[in-house]
Each structure stands twice: as C-alpha cells, then as structure tokens.
Amino acid sequence: MGQFYRVAILGATGAVGTELLELLESRHFPLADLKLLASARSAGTTLKFRGEKLTVEAVNAQSFDGVDIVLASAGGSISKAWAKTAIAAGAVMIDNSSAFRMDSKVPLIVPEVNPQEAANHQGLIANPNCTTILMSVAVYPLHRVQPIKRIVASTYQSASGAGARAMEEVKTQSQAILNGQTPKPEIFPYPLAFNLFPHNSPLNEQGYCEEEMKMVNETRKILGASDLRITATCVRVPVLRAHSESINLEFESPFDVAKAREILSKAPGVKLVDDWQANYFPMPIDASGKDDILVGRIRQDISNPNGLELWLCGDQIRKGAALNAIQIAELLVEKNLLKPQIAAIV
Amino acid sequence: MGQFYRVAILGATGAVGTELLELLESRHFPLADLKLLASARSAGTTLKFRGEKLTVEAVNAQSFDGVDIVLASAGGSISKAWAKTAIAAGAVMIDNSSAFRMDSKVPLIVPEVNPQEAANHQGLIANPNCTTILMSVAVYPLHRVQPIKRIVASTYQSASGAGARAMEEVKTQSQAILNGQTPKPEIFPYPLAFNLFPHNSPLNEQGYCEEEMKMVNETRKILGASDLRITATCVRVPVLRAHSESINLEFESPFDVAKAREILSKAPGVKLVDDWQANYFPMPIDASGKDDILVGRIRQDISNPNGLELWLCGDQIRKGAALNAIQIAELLVEKNLLKPQIAAIV
C-alpha cells in the first residue's frame, strides 16, 4: 500500500510551522511518524495533530536519527546550525529559510515550475521566498511559451511574512488606533495598522532591500533564466496573511493577451480571477487559506507593445511557504528521491 | 494693502470641502467673503471658519453673483451643472472633478509643474486627479532635465479618495473584524479593512480602469508630453488619507541617481525622505496632513540602464485635491488672472 515517512518539523510553533502541521494532516501525507522540533524555549508546548496532542521537543544532535524529511522553518541561523546533522542522519531537509537558496549545490524549487531540479538534491532543497514563489507560479506558464525579458514588480506584502507575532501586532495596533491611542511598534520598526512602508529588510549599495533582491535572484534561479532583467519594489501593507503583486512583464515580441489568459486559466497552481464585468479581481481575503495563486487584470500594457500587466494574490503562509515545502516533500516521495533509509511499512 | 476676493466652495461638507476651508484659513487666503454651497440635502449645516460659524447654503442660480473664485468639489455632475452659471456670473471655477480635465479648452494645472497654463483659462481650470498630482510633482523636476520616455506605476491608494464616508467605513469595518464579525461593505464594493483590491472604477476595453487612465492621460496633458508612454495599476489599500506610489521611470539615456536625488531635494512641493542608514522612507502616516510629496527610495533600476525607481507618499485630500486647488487660486491672484469684477478692498 505504498510507503510511509518519518517527518520532523523544525520550528513547529511558528506561523509556517503551524501551517505545515495543518497541511500534513489535510493533504494526508503518508506519515510513519511526526516529530515536532523547536528551540529549548518552545519545548514542552503541545500542538494538535490528527486529533492527538504532540509535544514539541528541543532540537538536539539526536533529533534527526531515523528521520526521512525535515521541514525547516525556524530561520536561517537554525537551518545553518542543523542542516549538516540532519543530512548526515540520512534526512532530506526542505529549508524554508534564505540560508541556502542561492547555493549552486542546493536546488531551489517551485514544484509547478522546476520539479526536475529535485533529482539533483544532495540532502538539502531550498524553499523560495514567498514573493518569489507567488510570482514564479504566475509568470512561468507565460515564460515557457515565450521567454520573459524584463519584470517590473511592486508588492503589497501582508504582516504574516514577519511571523505570527507581526500578524498579532497589526491587530492590536489597529485596535489601539481605533481607541484613539498611539501604539508603539514592537515587531515592525514602524506602525503598520492603517499605514504601509517599504519592506524594512537591509538595503544593498544600490538601494535595493534584501526582499527585493530575493525576488530578483531567486526568480532567475527558479526559471533558469540568469539574464532575465528584474526590478522590484517591496512594500509591507496592513493585510494579515496574503501577499499581492503588481507585475509588468516585457517579452521579446507581443504576447497575445487572450492567449495569456487562456494559458493562465489552465496553469497548475493558478486560479484565474479576471471578471471584468463585475470588476472583480484577486484580493487578499479571497486568497487567504487557499492553495492557488489568484491571477487577474491581465492586460496588454498600453505603454509597451511587447508588454503584459498582471495582478496576483496568494496566501503567504500557505503557497508562499508551507504548502510549497509540503509539495516539495510530496515530489520527493512521488519521484522516489529520498534516501534509502525509508521506512517501508505495508 | 492688496486685494481681497470673494470665494465660494461648492461641495463644502465633503472631505475635500472641509480641507479647502482649513487651507483658506491656515494659508491666510485674502478673502473678502466666503460662501459655502452644497446640495439642498446639506444646506443648513454649519461649519467653523476663522472662529465663526458659517451656514452652508443650497446652491442656486444666484449663488455665484459677485463671486470671484469657485472651488468646486461636489463631483462631476454638480460641476457640469453649475460651471456655465458660475462663469457667466464672472467667477473662475477651479474644478476638482474629472468632468473637464481632458477638455482642450480647460487648463489642467499642478502649480509646481505648469503654472503658465493658468493664463489660458476661459473661466474654468481643472484640478487633476490625486494620483496624477502626486506623481507629477515628483517626476516633473526630473522630466524637465531629461524627458521621461516611459512610466510604470503601481499605486497604494487610501480610502479618502472615495470620500469621508469611505474613511469612516474602513474604521468601522476594522473594528467589526477585530470583534470577530464579518461586516458588509457599503461604500466600497469589497471589504477594505485588512484587505486591498484593484481600484474599482469602470474598466475600458483594454482592461484599464478610469483611475489608471486618469494617470495616463492627465499626466501627459500636465507635462505637455503627449507621446509619454505610461502604464499604471491602481490599488485601494486600508490606509486613511495618504496615497503611495511605486514609480519606475525610463529615460532615453541613463539618469544619474545622485543627480536625481539632488534635483528632488530642491524641487518645489517635494520633501526628500531617503534615509538609507535608518531604512526610513516615505510612509502614509508621515505624509498625512503635510503639504509636500514625500519622495524616497530613489534607485538606479537594476533591470534597465536608463531607468530610475522611486517611491512617494502624499496626502490625497491635501496636495492630491484641496491644496492643489488653493494653490491654483493663489496663482490666479498672484498673476492677476481673475476677472475684472474683483472687489478692491484696501
């Protein structure tokens, strides 16, 4: 009846960890065992899974013994600290942090785009940044028909990208402002309730922030298009968990807009929400909790005969992080790309 | 001691009307008389001005007798209904609606950009759309040094663009959601609290909404650049009164980024907020209630050697509407462009 796998979640108590747990359950991942790992601070916490209470354990050198798949979502330094141990123990780590994404030995995978890269893993597969995943799923179906030459993107990123506490902060901040108070921001550097600000990740010398450079570099790696020209402006907005992106695409020659719409209506991981009659297009509230990237406002760019405009929304925690990681795990299982220690349970 | 003018505000009770009143007071506009006009529904309302209570009158055929300047902010149909009467009575109407903006006989003015157009008025001057004013103030100082060839803009528009009731709706909606309710939107077609959506103005056949086409057509008219290629994606966000814009500019040849920053640091109506050290850039909360357009994140576009990226925030009610109208009125006074009925009061 197929095989079952021993999975560990590293960083089980965060926003993405919680979602990973939910997805392993709802997608009926073939689990032989599920281990919840976190820092010593979170150890002892219990989380519900398939009707049972699982206790979070503090990660240690023995944590990965016998584990087939590690889903890591505890941040770059934790992933760096434990990757070697996990791989040495025979596991494949699917890492949600940015630590290894641009490492040429580490495949960076969006299953709808470059699943073939999974075969090249050496024990580690990187899960791309949320904004990159969302954009890749939406533009790849067009790119494979006619290569994209340039992308100008502006993002509208929800609080969830900064974690569960950031989502909570937007709510408490909103309530305080509605009460006439002036709350002091704690998680974000500036108030986000009824406000927005350019993404506050560190800036490089050219003035691009890390989040923007992730979109640039990761998208190139995923699409296998090292000469693709990309510029991005990333902005944090007071939305809870779905990101939106305004994307301007330039091709070598015109891309028929009806054909683009037709292609995207059939693309895996994409749901076309493009109702001109009702003026109804993708919105974060509709994307929240959904697997698909909602894509709409597909237009011929009136400023460029070779251009297309499109607009998308996608759940940042789900497809932007946890779901993509689970889909990579499913891909490893389906293509039989795990290490031979796999627990064969009939 | 100079001259004083009789001013009427048509649409005095709206968000922009209220701001016009505040600005006439705070800027010490040389008023001989101020008349507040509105629909019959709002007649009788009293509004405070210079410590006195003024009563709003229902607009009628005699309302404009003896008036020098009409500041109209009651919507396109009201402006259309009363423009002829006001002009025939000898007034100059500064119209905040979109009714006459693209009329070749009507100057469309941003005082920092094309003040010279005021001399061509025939009794009517149009105040541009908010998004257009904000963008024009920020890009014109660069355009006059080296003509812009193409603009790709994405907006982050506050609730105020849809009026005072829309601002209120965002607050009550936020409160309801925080209370665990699912409020039904009334002013906007979709919930805006903790959400966002593409601007819901009517779409043309190419899929561009009216708001986007205003940015395209009005910007061309104001800059006197009919061949300037512009594309825009307009988005409503849960912010109360300041709009933000992510703007990608393309020139014929490279525009030195240090020079761009230098030019914008001295540009009228612009305040440079471009603190890379502190990762501090324009935000709606900082732009709210301010006259200047805050501009920052001025970067060399890494996807185009002839490109610049910039980010701006500006108060939609203030410079995006009321302040620009008052500045046009001040321009008429300064350049002596009002009709000869001017009341000369020493």
TrEMBL record, chains A, B:
InterPro entries listed in its UniProt record: Asp_semialdehyde_DH (IPR012080), Asp_semialdehyde_DH_beta (IPR005986), NAD(P)-bd_dom_sf (IPR036291), Semialdehyde_DH_NAD-bd (IPR000534), Semialdhyde_DH_dimer_dom (IPR012280)
EC number assigned by the record: 1.2.1.11
Stretches that traverse the bilayer: none
Binding site residues for phosphate: 101
Example of a GO MF term: NADP binding
Binding site for substrate: 157, 210, 236
Catalytic activity, as annotated: L-aspartate 4-semialdehyde + phosphate + NADP(+) = 4-phospho-L-aspartate + NADPH + H(+)
Leading EC class: oxidoreductase
Assigned keywords, A-Z: Amino-acid biosynthesis, Diaminopimelate biosynthesis, Lysine biosynthesis, Methionine biosynthesis, NADP, Oxidoreductase, Threonine biosynthesis
RNA-binding is among the record's keywords: no
Binding-site residues, NADP(+): 13-16, 41-42, 160-161, 316
Active-site feature positions: 130, 243
GO biological process: 'de novo' L-methionine biosynthetic process; diaminopimelate biosynthetic process; isoleucine biosynthetic process; lysine biosynthetic process via diaminopimelate; threonine biosynthetic process
Pathway assignment: Amino-acid biosynthesis; L-methionine biosynthesis via de novo pathway; L-homoserine from L-aspartate: step 2/3; Amino-acid biosynthesis; L-threonine biosynthesis; L-threonine from L-aspartate: step 2/5; Amino-acid biosynthesis; L-lysine biosynthesis via DAP pathway; (S)-tetrahydrodipicolinate from L-aspartate: step 2/4
Entry keyword Transmembrane helix: no
Domain Semialdehyde dehydrogenase NAD-binding: from-to ranges: 6-121
NCBIfam families: asd_B, PRK14874.1
Subunit structure: Homodimer.
Role: Catalyzes the NADPH-dependent formation of L-aspartate-semialdehyde (L-ASA) by the reductive dephosphorylation of L-aspartyl-4-phosphate.
Family: Belongs to the aspartate-semialdehyde dehydrogenase family.
Protein name as annotated: Aspartate-semialdehyde dehydrogenase
Source organism of the structure: Phormidesmis priestleyi ULC007
